[in-house]
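Appendix C: a fully annotated inverse folding record. The material below is reproduced so that readers can follow the format used throughout the book. The structure is listed first as tokens, followed by the designed sequence.
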């Protein structure tokens, strides 16, 4: 049974490696993603969410990728002493797209990887202390919409390590490549090609 499971997994990975989307440019890259991070639980205030990722369009409806997320949560910015909570993650990602007929389409996906946390204490605008927190496995379910080369996304970051806070991020990103090539529809490369493809 273990050998059968291993064979099926290897076959699936092999198929993904040599598959490619006929209707979309193979790779797409979120150069920089930024937005708002809302911590769920704890005493931290909302803060900045940021990140980036690289995806491969294995089919017209499915992409795989790697990415990094981060968030900074602050307290009273005007105070003489402020503690900032910091979270970073490295993720393996997969997205399913609900349409394959244009560059504007909704998607849902999930990521899995390692989350690390820490705290930075700032006193009178000087960094006084950096405390490393913990590292643990987490999940990142997400939904969003691609407007050609603009990607809007909501992502819930769920960690399983005790002491780490979960948070929800709403972000927007500029995406290079990944544009719609037209699929089976007729396509005028001279007049309609997107410059960011």
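Designed amino acids, in order:
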């Amino acid at each position: 049974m273990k050998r059968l499971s291993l064979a099926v997994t290897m076959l699936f990975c092999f198929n993904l490696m040599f598959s490619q989307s006929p209707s979309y440019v193979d790779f797409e890259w979120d150069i920089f993603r930024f937005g708002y991070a809302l911590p769920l639980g704890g005493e931290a205030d909302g803060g900045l969410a940021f990140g980036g990722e690289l995806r491969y369009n294995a089919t017209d409806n499915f992409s795989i990728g790697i990415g990094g997320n981060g968030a900074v949560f602050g307290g009273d910015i005007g105070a003489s002493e402020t503690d900032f909570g910091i979270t970073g993650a490295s993720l393996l990602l997969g997205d399913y797209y609900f349409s394959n007929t244009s560059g504007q389409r909704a998607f849902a996906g999930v990521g899995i990887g390692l989350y690390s946390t820490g705290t930075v204490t700032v006193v009178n605008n000087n960094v006084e202390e950096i405390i490393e927190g913990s590292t643990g496995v987490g999940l990142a379910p997400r939904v969003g919409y691609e407007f050609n080369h603009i990607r809007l996304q909501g992502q819930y970051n769920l960690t399983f390590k005790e002491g780490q806070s979960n948070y929800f991020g709403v972000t927007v990103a500029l995406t290079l490549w990944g544009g719609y090539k037209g699929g089976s529809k007729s396509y005028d490369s001279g007049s309609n090609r997107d410059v960011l493809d």
